[in-house]
Design a protein that fits this description.
Belongs to the Mrp/NBP35 ATP-binding proteins family. Binds and transfers iron-sulfur (Fe-S) clusters to target apoproteins. Can hydrolyze ATP. Keywords: 4Fe-4S, ATP-binding, Hydrolase, Iron, Iron-sulfur, Metal-binding, Nucleotide-binding, Transit peptide. Pfam families: FeS_assembly_P, ParA. With 373 residues, the chain is α/β, with parallel strands linked by helices. The protein has two domains: 75 residues, Fe-S cluster assembly (FSCA) (GMP Synthetase, Chain A, domain 3, 2-Layer Sandwich); 247 residues, P-loop containing nucleotide triphosphate hydrolases (Rossmann fold), CATH 3.40.50. The chain contains eleven helices and 15 strands. The strands form four sheets. The protein has an eight-stranded mixed beta sheet, with helices on both faces. Strands 1-2-3 form a three-stranded mixed beta sheet, sandwiched between helices. The radius of gyration is 22 Å and the shape is globular. 45% of the residues are buried.
C-alpha cells in the first residue's frame, strides 16, 4: 500500500470551505493537525464553542473528503477549541518570527507517567470483557503493581457497579482525582452521570470525553493502566490507538465460532493501528456444576486457543463460567479480591502474571505515537 501523504491530505481539504471567511479551511487556519497511522486518519479543526454547531457540516464534509482519499480506510475529524500557544522568543534573538499558520505544535502525548497501557478489548459485547478487565487489574494490584483502571466505554460504563463505587470524583484545580477501590485508581464516565442516564453522543464527543479522562485526570505514576474498551472497532478504539502509546491489547472472546469471528476483527484492527496484540483470553470457557462437579462446555471449548494459534498470537488462558464471578461483580466486589483463593481468582492471577511478564519488557520499548503536523 502506498504511503499516505500528509501534504496530499491537506491539499484535498482545500476543497472544504469555511462558511465564516469564505476561504478553504486550510487557508483559513482552521486545520490544527492531521494524524496518520497506516490507513487511518484523524484531523482536528479549530473552532470555539459558540460556532461548534455551524462547524458541524464542515466537519462532516472534511471527514468525507478524507475518507475518499486513496489508501484511507477510515477517517475521523473532530472539533476543538484548543489553539497552540506561540513559542517564546529565544534569548538574545529578538522577537520570534510569526508561527506558520499551517504548522501548529504537535499535541502532547497523553499519560506520560504511565509505564504500560493495556487495552482489554473484544470484537463484540456480551463476552465478559469488563469482568476480565476489572479482575485483571485487581490481580495486578494484588501482585504489588501500581495500577489504574480506565473505563473507556462511554455508552455503557460498567465500572461503577462492578467496583461498588457510586460517588463523583474530586476536582482539584483543572484535574479530576481518580477514585480508589480494591487497590486501583479508577475513572469512568459512569462516576459523572447517573447510572440510568443514556449517553446520546456522537463520535467526536466520545473521543473528546476519552481524551479528557486521560489528559485531565491526575493519574500520577502508574506501573500499568488497564483500559476497559467498548466492544467493536470504532471511534474509541481509534482514539486510544492514536493518542496514547498503547503497550498492547488483550482480546477477550468466548469459545464459540460467532464470537471468534468478532475477536478476529479486533485483532486485525489493532494490527492495522500498529498496537501489539498480547494474546487472546477464552472467557466462559467451561462450566462445572457446583453440586455434582459435572463439566459442561456450554459455548464449546478451546476455540480461542485454536484461533490464537491461527492468528499467530499467544493464548493467555481460560476463565471458567462461574456463578460466583457474576454475583461478585454485581455486588461490586471483584472476585479476584473478594475470594482470592477461589479457582476463578487463581485463573485471573495467572492471566495477570502473564500479561505483566509481556508488558514489563515491552513498556521500555514503547514510545509516544507520532503526530504528523
Amino acid at each position: 500500500m502506498a504511503e499516505i501523504s500528509q501534504e496530499a491530505l491537506r491539499a484535498a481539504l482545500c476543497a472544504v470551505k469555511d462558511p465564516a471567511s469564505g476561504q478553504d479551511i486550510v487557508s483559513a487556519g482552521l486545520l490544527e493537525s492531521i494524524e496518520v497511522r497506516d490507513s487511518l486518519v484523524q484531523a482536528t479543526l479549530l473552532t470555539d464553542r459558540a460556532h461548534a454547531a455551524a462547524m458541524e457540516p464542515v466537519r462532516r464534509e472534511a471527514e468525507a473528503v478524507l475518507c475518499g482519499q486513496p489508501g484511507v480506510t477510515n477517517a475521523t475529524v473532530i472539533l476543538t477549541a484548543h489553539r497552540p500557544q506561540p513559542a517564546a522568543p529565544a534569548a538574545g534573538r529578538g522577537p520570534a518570527a510569526p508561527a506558520a499558520k499551517h504548522a501548529p505544535a504537535a499535541k502532547p502525548a497523553l499519560l506520560p507517567e504511565v509505564k504500560a497501557i493495556v487495552a482489554v478489548a473484544s470484537g463484540k459485547g456480551g463476552v465478559g470483557k469488563s469482568t476480565v478487565a476489572v479482575n485483571l487489574a485487581v490481580s495486578l494490584a494484588r501482585q504489588g503493581h501500581t495500577v489504574g483502571l480506565l473505563d473507556a466505554d462511554i455508552y455503557g460504563p460498567s465500572l461503577p457497579r462492578m467496583l461498588g463505587l457510586n460517588r463523583k470524583p474530586e476536582v482539584r484545580g483543572d484535574r479530576m482525582i481518580p477514585l480508589q477501590a480494591w487497590g486501583l485508581s479508577c475513572m469512568s464516565i459512569g462516576f459523572l452521570v447517573d447510572e440510568e442516564t443514556p449517553m446520546i453522543w456522537r463520535g467526536p464527543m466520545v473521543m473528546g470525553a476519552l481524551e479528557q479522562m486521560m489528559g485531565q485526570v491526575a493519574w500520577g505514576k502508574l506501573d500499568i493502566l488497564v483500559v476497559d474498551m467498548p466492544p467493536g472497532t470504532g471511534d474509541a478504539q481509534l482514539t486510544m490507538a492514536q493518542r496514547v502509546a498503547l503497550t498492547g491489547a488483550v482480546i477477550v472472546s468466548t469459545p464459540q465460532d460467532i464470537a471468534l469471528i468478532d475477536a478476529r476483527r479486533g485483532v486485525r484492527m489493532f494490527e492495522k493501528t500498529q498496537v501489539p496484540v498480547l494474546g487472546l483470553v477464552e472467557n466462559m470457557s467451561f462450566f462445572c456444576c457446583p453440586n455434582c462437579g459435572h463439566r459442561s462446555d456450554i459455548f464449546g471449548h478451546g476455540g480461542a486457543k485454536a484461533e490464537a494459534a491461527r492468528l499467530g498470537t499467544e493464548f493467555l488462558g481460560e476463565i471458567p463460567l462461574l456463578l460466583d464471578i457474576r454475583t461478585a461483580a454485581d455486588a461490586g466486589q471483584p472476585i479476584a479480591a473478594a475470594a482470592p483463593d477461589s479457582e476463578a481468582a487463581k485463573a485471573y492471577d495467572a492471566l495477570a502474571r502473564r500479561v505483566w511478564d509481556k508488558v514489563s519488557g515491552a513498556a521500555v520499548r514503547s514510545g509516544p505515537r507520532i503526530v504528523i503536523e
